[in-house]
Amino acid sequence: MNHPLFLRSTLAALACAAGLAHAAFAASPADLLSAYGAQAGAAPQAARGQQFFNVTHGREWSCASCHGAVPVQAGRHAGTGKPIAAMAPAFNHERLTDAAKTEKWFRRNCNDVVGRECTAAEKADVLSWLLTLKP
Amino acid sequence: MPNDRSRSSSLATWTLAFAAGMGMGPWVWADDGPRAAQVPLLPSYKTECAACHVAYPPGMLPASSWQRLVTHLPNHFGTDASLDPAAAKELATWLGANAATGRRAVESPPDDRITRSAWFTRQHDEVPAATWKRASIKSASNCAACHTGADRGDFNEHTVRIPR
Known about the structure:
Largest interface: A-B, 16 and 22 residues
Number of strands of chain B: 0
Number of domains of chain A: 1
CATH architecture of chain A: Orthogonal Bundle
Number of domains of chain B: 2
Oligomer: heterodimer
Structural class of chain B: mainly alpha
Largest sheet of chain B: none
Number of strands of chain A: 2
Strand order of the largest sheet of chain A: 1-2
Radius of gyration of chain B: 17 Å
Helix content of chain A: 40-55%
Distance between the termini of chain B: 42 Å
Strand content of chain A: under 5%
Radius of gyration of chain A: 14 Å
């Protein structure tokens, strides 16, 4: 289901929290992380993010099923086989630079992997882990 | 290079004349291959749909099938492919305008799956069941596994390379 109101308010919160009101949805991964962290009201934990990314949540796929266990290189869509560019921002500079796009993919993929939308804390944990991955 | 240009344009003329002589449009393959394969792709079709799978040419399904698929994106063959309403509407309009024409426009395949269309089955009848199951192919929907030009909308059988 689409939740346009929820989405819009989340994005507005994200944009404001990151001080991006004038910059459309352009953001840095660190901006998005701090926005999710602020929304969660707790410090993100990279180790918890890694765990969340790599385990299944009562369904067939984990995040790693498509992105790889350590997403520093291209993954492959578990259903279609289509290559998916590296997810870690240090290996793919386009990643996590657009708040709306990030929200859209969290919405879709959390629904597939977890069967619900992810919480702000879960998103913050995953982002904080992705940001620890360096060449 | 005038020579090259005149050579290629005369080749194009001959190709068109040949196609016209056979009673076909220039994009039609000899054995009833994918018809509208060469429609330029809407940018959002590439970013939204082709992020997860091959950019299936819109001419591979009738408008009624595309309509249902776009309406049910939150449950798209078992995955959530939901879009905001504006993006979905733009895609629906473009897909409808470029959907299958002629014989293929008449019948929606089961589950609106391209791979269950009568023409798809007919064109792949020489591929053994075991070949489809190879890890390198996985699924009939993975066009690009064998059709090396699939991402460009080129499904000509001369560019097919079936992986081991």
